[in-house]
Design a protein that fits this description.
Blueprint lengths: L2 H12 L7 H6 L16 E3 L5 E3 L4 E2 L1 H11 L3 H4 E3 L4 E3 L4 E4 L1 E3 L10 E2 L2 E2 L7 H5 L2 E3 L4 E3 L11 H29 L8 E2 L7 E6 L4 E6 L3
Parallel strand pairs: 6-13
Antiparallel strand pairs: 1-2, 3-7, 4-7, 5-6, 5-12, 8-9, 10-11, 13-14
């Protein structure tokens, strides 16, 4: 992953109209069942030979966090935590690549309460796009209990626009993070921190670098 290839991908997306994704999205028949499946840890995603990431370790943008704060009145660290599954060490400090939505001791999203999302109206962009993700040539559709229903043309168009905005924002965020990390960005030193890790972590999110003190909660 380098800045040139990321910019090339952004340029490619700029020239694609979101309507190109509508037939595939509408054909899925998606309708959110608010079942909470994507809010819970259902499986692990293998990142490297030594690092596995819970399926609900949701990467979020600073803008997502601010929107949730505005809607709920919570504080930043009530909403988000450093991405402990994507960290680097330069021999002196630990650097986390972005933020994830905070999870509880059971491994569920902290906002999944009473069998529903407590922040549904303010949920992050990635949650708004689920179960759709941008593939190399088309839209990838993840597992979801809400598939196979009726989906209106208007809803499919709205989802397609959101998916394109999300992908472009993600790529621009990557560019910002690469600039922040500089020579520290070596995937040979990629590591995951234990859930009970205590200590300082520097979080690079593309907007700013934050010094966060982690402690067992």
């Amino acid at each position: 992953m380098d800045i040139a290839s990321l910019r090339s991908r952004i340029g490619h997306l700029i020239h694609i109209h979101s309507s190109d994704y509508v037939p595939h999205i509408r054909g899925s028949g998606f309708s959110c069942a608010r079942c909470g499946w994507c809010c819970r840890n259902n499986f692990d995603i293998k990142i490297t030979e030594d690092i596995s990431r819970p399926s609900n370790a949701i990467s979020i943008f600073p803008g997502d966090i601010r929107r949730i704060i505005r809607g709920t009145g919570f504080q930043w660290d009530d909403v988000a935590q450093p991405d402990i599954y994507s960290c680097l060490s330069d021999g002196e400090n630990i650097w986390a690549i972005g933020w994830i939505l905070r999870r509880n001791d059971a491994g569920d999203c902290v906002f999944y309460k009473n069998n529903e999302c407590a922040i549904y109206d303010w949920r992050p962009m990635i949650c708004r796009c689920y179960p759709f993700f941008m593939g190399e040539r088309d839209v990838d559709i993840m597992h979801c209990k809400g598939l196979g229903n009726e989906m209106t043309q208007e809803r499919a168009e709205e989802m397609a626009r959101m998916l394109k905005r999300y992908e472009m924002k993600k790529l621009r965020s990557y560019i910002g993070i690469i600039g922040q990390l500089g020579d520290r960005l070596s995937f040979a030193s990629l590591r995951a921190l234990p859930c009970d890790y205590s200590g300082d972590v520097f979080v690079c999110d593309g907007e700013r670098i934050s010094n966060v003190r982690l402690a067992c909660r």
